[in-house]
Amino acid sequence: MQTQRTWLLFILVLVVAAMSLLLYPPLRDNQPPIQLGLDLRGGAQLTIQVQTTDEITEITKDDLDAVELVISNRVNGLGVSEAVVQTAGADRILVQLPGVSDPEEAEELLGETAQLDFRTEDPTVISQLDVRQREYGALIEEQISAEQKQDKEAIASIEEKIRQKQEEIAALEEQRFSRTDLTGENLRNANYGPANQAGTQWQVNLYFDSEGAEKFAELTKSVAGTGRTLGIFLDDELISAPSVGPEYADTGISGGRAQISGNFDASEAKTLSLQLQGGSLPLPVEIVENRTVGATLGQDSVRRSIYAGLSGLLLVLVFMVVYYRILGLIANLALGVYTVLTLACFTLVPGFTLTLPGIAGFILSIGMAVDANVLIFERTREELRSGRTVYRAVESGFNRAFSSILDSNVTTLIACGALFWLGSGLVKGFALTLGIGVGVSMFTAYSCSRTILFLTVLGLPSVRQKPELFCPNLTASAKS
To answer: For residue 438, what are the CA distances in angstroms to 218, 343, 411?
Structure first.
């Protein structure tokens, strides 16, 4: 009984925490608990067409993937959650930005050609950074000493100096790299491949034109063996900072070819090579369509969907009480806990946005949560009909049904994982909401229902001695 009380306290704490996340704005930086997707609240939709040039007359899949990656990075820079960036045909990219009220700003940003350039660390700035870092470390030591002495005036003074030092360091970090004349226009291609025969490490291969080969050789010669790195920037964002070994101090890396290695796995190497391709390809892009999208379902359709969902849920709740009696009432309580916990889990996922497929996944997981209780209760009824006491029948029902519940939910989670891994956009949203819902339903169906049932119902002798409350039309052999 003490174990059940502990579980009940734990469940209550979870419910209170979940309700706080959903109802208390400061915990979410005054943001709504769940963001709605483009199909529910509208936004901007842009269609971008990748143009060919005299040098590149055909756009390959790699070209399109590289441009798509650059666009995705820029969308992330806009701070739009659950944006959809996907290819559409052989030369077009579709971008959906939920909640964006100024599509012209998005068009200006996304329509620019990606800018790739190579930079070197400024030795003067590096030396200044070293000095500031040492000064910062000394201030931290002074702060620790002042806190130990509980000297409030000294602590306040040191904190202000630390803040100023942090600003100085941040300003120097922005000046850390100096621009050179080597840009993405000089990079012909970039790909990736294994760096060893075992395939445990991967590298990115760079190929420059003749002009770029000379610039790259001079650039690498200037930093070889100095400890300074070569910064590779895409749209002014540092994407890689490789160093150059001292063996290239005399000639630099010549021949127009180079490798970037550094414990990359295959995925990391592919991402970096696509970023380099996206910045190096002289492929202009054109916004061929830019429109503001209203909620595609419409307010009336959304309202009807809510009514339909609530009606279906009410029917399920009534059926559970009518058919399973007290067991159904417990299932309904557990279903309420499930709903609160699942919605709270949605708010904890970074960038989570609820779309129509996501709602479908959530509703489907509600059905699976009820299904788990049905399996448990039917097992319980079988035990009651065989003559077991109410307590033993309920206990056996939970224990015997658990393997079936586990098998069905694990197979569903495997399907969700496949959809999330291989799918994109709205399909991922469906898989995520269904997966979270299934995981929470396993917890509520077994732990929550069991705790409430054993502690509140079976703890009452007057209820425990009436098996007909759990299963009507029992024979006389079924006793409490």
So the answer is: 58, 13, 10
